[in-house]
């Protein structure tokens, strides 16, 4: 690699690592946050969903913004915004202040991952680009291991506030590399940003999520619930309708004409909604219900991450030969079985016999699912539109997690006790199995003639 390319790769890795690190740390810190700032499960829901609302809405517009104002400038603004929001979260005096800061952090985070990948694709080509993306994937995936461990240690031995301050270190290093790299921005003169669409999407999602989170406390008959629910739904519908006529849509609806893209995103909704629900419930219950320290609770799902890292690339290669349908069917159903194994968790708690088997089975299912799902969705769209196709799928996954977390109180019955934990496990299993069935019914393998014959084992 040339010196400039090394700078680009490290900048891309560090900028994305920040966003992935924060996403894995926050779940570990939730019990400590609600203990100090109050609000119980409602505070925990909003801490997660405030971030996901702005992230899910603005990640669609990130590509347009970087084209209009330059990728380096947008990445620098995203990094500074993320750092300022992290400092505000660490200093939050109330739950309400923290939630607003998390929304700002999500808005900044929306520009980190797309801008990072755009830097790689614009500075690498051919085999070097594939290698760079492979390095980026491996390094950013490591945040799934580092985040829970680091977050747990900081919560147990310092404070949950330090878990957010840790973001400032890689952000500072990335800003230094950006300054020393001597990069010049390239802008598209005809680029246009649908700011109105972004506002409609954000307010629409926000209204619906507010109603879903607050409904268990006020009831569906309360005007404070059904009014924001209806208004949010109307605003989001207006956003979708606008995307059909606006010159530069942030959600190109014509992408959904491709069968595998359409059905793959429906499967994504089920699968990633289930993953978000399971990820939060397990780490919070292990602390509040089973009494584990934050460090051990954060490490509980480590087998899932390890299995995905070890086998997802091999599964991706097999999917490239045999097609994604089989893997997208078996993988989510396997994860559903793993979720049902959590029903063995009882008042006489044992991680090794009650939780670890579930994590292993779910990890195997996750390894079978992720790469084929991604290839099926992106493979359905022409290569020159793969960037926006990836952004749409990422946004779908984020919004699915957003809605799943918003429904948490309704799913667990208001309290994340043992009974609520079992309810969440059942809902997770149902969503996973629904994702597998959707894939079986809806996904089509490309022509087998496109695949080389499988080599003998």
Counting structural domains, the number is 3
Main β sheet profile: none
The total beta strand count reads 0
Q: CATH topology of the largest domain, what is it called?
A: Growth Hormone, Chain: A
Summed up, the helix count is 20
**Main structural class:** mainly alpha
The average pLDDT score comes to 85
Q: What is the helical fraction, as a range of percent?
A: over 70%
Rg is 21 Å
CATH architecture descriptor of the largest domain: Up-down Bundle
Task: Explain the layout of strands and helices.
Elements: H1 3-37, H2 40-58, H3 62-69, H4 71-90, H5 95-109, H6 112-123, H7 126-141, H8 143-157, H9 160-165, H10 168-180, H11 195-218, H12 223-242, H13 259-288, H14 294-299, H15 302-322, H16 325-340, H17 351-379, H18 386-406, H19 408-412, H20 418-442
Helix pairs in contact: 1-2, 1-6, 1-7, 1-8, 1-10, 1-13, 2-5, 2-11, 2-18, 3-4, 4-5, 4-6, 4-10, 11-12, 11-18, 13-17, 13-18, 13-20, 15-17, 16-17, 16-20, 17-18
Transmembrane segments: 7-30, 50-66, 73-93, 99-120, 132-154, 160-183, 195-213, 225-242, 263-286, 292-313, 325-345, 351-374, 395-416, 422-443
Subcellular location: Cell membrane
InterPro entries: EmrB-like, MFS, MFS_dom, MFS_trans_sf
Features:
457 residues; mainly alpha; Growth Hormone, Chain: A; 3 domains; 20 helices; disordered C terminus
Q: What would your notes on this structure say?
A:
InterPro entries: EmrB-like (IPR004638), MFS (IPR011701), MFS_dom (IPR020846), MFS_trans_sf (IPR036259). It comes from Microbacterium ureisolvens. The chain crosses the membrane at residues 7-30, 50-66, 73-93, 99-120, 132-154, 160-183, 195-213, 225-242, 263-286, 292-313, 325-345, 351-374, 395-416, 422-443. It is built from 20 helices and no strands. It is mainly alpha-helical. The longest helix has 35 residues, at 3-37. The radius of gyration is 21 Å and the shape is globular. The model is unreliable at 449-457 (pLDDT under 50).
């Amino acid at each position: 690699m040339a010196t400039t390319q090394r700078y680009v790769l490290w900048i891309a890795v560090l900028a994305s690592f920040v966003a992935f690190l924060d996403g894995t740390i926050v779940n570990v810190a939730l019990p400590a946050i609600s203990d100090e700032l109050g609000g119980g499960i409602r505070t925990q829901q909003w801490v997660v969903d405030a971030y996901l609302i702005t992230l899910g809405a603005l990640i669609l517009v990130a590509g347009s913004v970087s084209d209009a104002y330059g990728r380096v400038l947008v990445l620098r603004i995203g990094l500074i915004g993320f750092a300022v929001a992290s400092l505000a979260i660490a200093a939050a005096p109330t739950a309400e202040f923290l939630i607003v800061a998390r929304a700002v952090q999500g808005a900044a985070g929306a520009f980190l991952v797309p801008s990072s990948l755009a830097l790689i694709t614009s500075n690498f080509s051919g085999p070097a680009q594939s290698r760079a993306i492979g390095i980026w994937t491996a390094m950013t995936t490591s945040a799934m291991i580092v985040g829970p461990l680091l977050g747990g240690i900081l919560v147990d031995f310092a404070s949950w506030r330090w878990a957010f301050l840790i973001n400032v270190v890689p952000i500072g290093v990335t800003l230094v590399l950006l300054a020393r790299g001597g990069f010049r921005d390239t802008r598209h003169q005809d680029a246009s940003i649908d700011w109105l669409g972004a506002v409609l999407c954000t307010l629409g999602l926000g209204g619906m999520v507010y109603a879903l989170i607050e409904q268990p406390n006020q009831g569906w008959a309360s005007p404070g619930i059904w009014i924001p629910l209806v208004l949010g739904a109307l605003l989001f519908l207006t956003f979708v309708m606008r995307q059909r006529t606006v010159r530069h849509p942030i959600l190109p609806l014509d992408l959904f004409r491709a069968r595998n893209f359409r059905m793959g995103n429906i499967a994504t909704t089920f699968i990633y909604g289930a993953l978000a629900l399971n990820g939060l419930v397990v780490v919070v219950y292990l602390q509040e219900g089973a009494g584990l320290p934050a460090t051990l609770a954060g490490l509980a799902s480590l087998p899932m991450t390890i299995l995905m890292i070890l086998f997802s690339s091999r599964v991706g290669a097999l999917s490239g030969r045999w097609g994604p349908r089989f893997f997208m069917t078996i993988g989510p159903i396997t994860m559903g079985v793993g979720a049902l194994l959590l029903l063995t968790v009882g008042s006489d708690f044992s991680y090794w016999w009650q939780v670890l088997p579930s994590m292993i089975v779910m990890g195997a299912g996750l390894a079978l699912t992720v790469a084929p799902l991604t290839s099926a969705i992106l493979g359905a769209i022409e290569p020159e539109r793969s960037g926006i196709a990836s952004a749409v799928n990422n946004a779908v996954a984020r919004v699915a997690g957003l809605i799943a977390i918003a429904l948490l109180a309704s799913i667990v019955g208001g309290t994340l006790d043992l009974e609520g934990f079992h309810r969440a496990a059942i809902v997770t299993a149902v969503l996973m199995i629904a994702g597998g069935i959707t894939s079986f019914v809806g996904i089509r393998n490309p022509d087998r003639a496109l695949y080389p014959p499988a080599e003998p084992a």
